[in-house]
Amino acid sequence: MTQQPLQGVNSLRFNQDQSCFCCAMETGVRIYSVEPLMEKGHLDHEQVGSMGLVEMLHRSNLLALVGSGISPKFFEISVLIWDDAREGKDSKDKLVLEFTFTKPVLAVPMRHDKIVIVLRNRLYVYSFPDNPRKLFEFDTRDNPKGLCDLCPSLEKELLVFPGHRCGSLQLVDLASTKPGTSSAPFTISAHQSDVACVSLNQLGTVVASPSQKGTLIGLFDTQSKEKLVELRRGTDPATLYCINFSHDSSFLCDSSDKGTVHIFGLKDTRLNCHSVLALVGKVGPMIGRYVDFQWSLASFTVPAESTCISAFRRNTSKKRQLCNCHLRSWNLPQICLHSRWKLQQRGFRPVP
């Protein structure tokens, strides 16, 4: 089957369990499954115009669309819900809901019963998809990337986003917070600088977040708010594009503008590399904290000029696999499946 080139990709997003990903393009929308890796559907430019953002609800027929780009059909201040299973030849027949605001929409995380719409300084939570109504509204610190994550688990309705204080994360248990009421926020002081990314594991028990510097990733218990571990990516500043947990929370991956994807062990942290000075019983205060860091157990490279997102595939075999989607400088998405990781030298790492 001959396919047209996917030119002008504006964003790439995995769905809630990383089994699919969506491409928002100048020419419309493309949706792919990860396993097997194949196109599952597309919306042409004639149907939806140029797209800035597309989010998929699990593997269902519902898509959240936000227009942007050179020739948009929809405004960037609106979220349109597209029901691909609905009958009708015209695109208007497929559009079942619309949420409109006064400022551009930056992210639209969804779960089976709620949708969150993220603006630069505020986010809104609605019941979804039947008879949507506004449940909550939260002011945030300036959030130009639209950072936010929503736990997909049926057992936990946890929402996390940047807090008002620099480097803090705010956690909201939507199940225990009554709509229309204010409650004391649960705040984690994660970093001294602004938060660069935020990601919850599938069960909503752990939240991971790197700072804007991009050298460290902190993992925190969402119940106790205590720091569980601090992972070191490197010593040079980096812009992180994404961080994701494996489905069983055994591993964590991240990608950055350095062109390197790192994998860390979480359940068995002995797999990670440590500083050689960890063998020393006593160290000076200048390097004591450095010794405590854990480095990635494995890494591999993608083109440094690419914007890359990475996630773990759900696999019934014992082989761990990653799906990486990255945008080349000529705006063509490249999809790579990695089943073998380039291991770092096992054991201890010298202090640079």
From TrEMBL:
Residues making up the signal peptide according to the UniProt record: none
MF terms (GO), sorted A to Z: lipid binding
Keywords, ordered alphabetically: Autophagy, Lipid-binding, Repeat, WD repeat
Top-level taxonomic group: Eukaryota
Protein name, entry field: WD repeat domain phosphoinositide-interacting protein 4
Organism, scientific name: Heterocephalus glaber
Keyword Acetylation: no
GO cellular component: phagophore assembly site
Main location group: other
Subunit structure: Interacts with WIPI1. Interacts with WIPI2. Interacts with ATG2A and ATG2B. Interacts with ULK1. May interact with the PRKAA1, PRKAA2, PRKAB1 and PRKAG1 subunits of the AMPK kinase. May interact with NUDC.
GO biological process, one term: autophagy
Free-text function comment from the UniProt entry: Component of the autophagy machinery that controls the major intracellular degradation process by which cytoplasmic materials are packaged into autophagosomes and delivered to lysosomes for degradation. Binds phosphatidylinositol 3-phosphate (PtdIns3P). Activated by the STK11/AMPK signaling pathway upon starvation, WDR45 is involved in autophagosome assembly downstream of WIPI2, regulating the size of forming autophagosomes.
SUPFAM superfamilies: WD40 repeat-like (SSF50978)
Cellular localization per UniProt: Preautophagosomal structure
Family the UniProt entry places it in: Belongs to the WD repeat PROPPIN family.
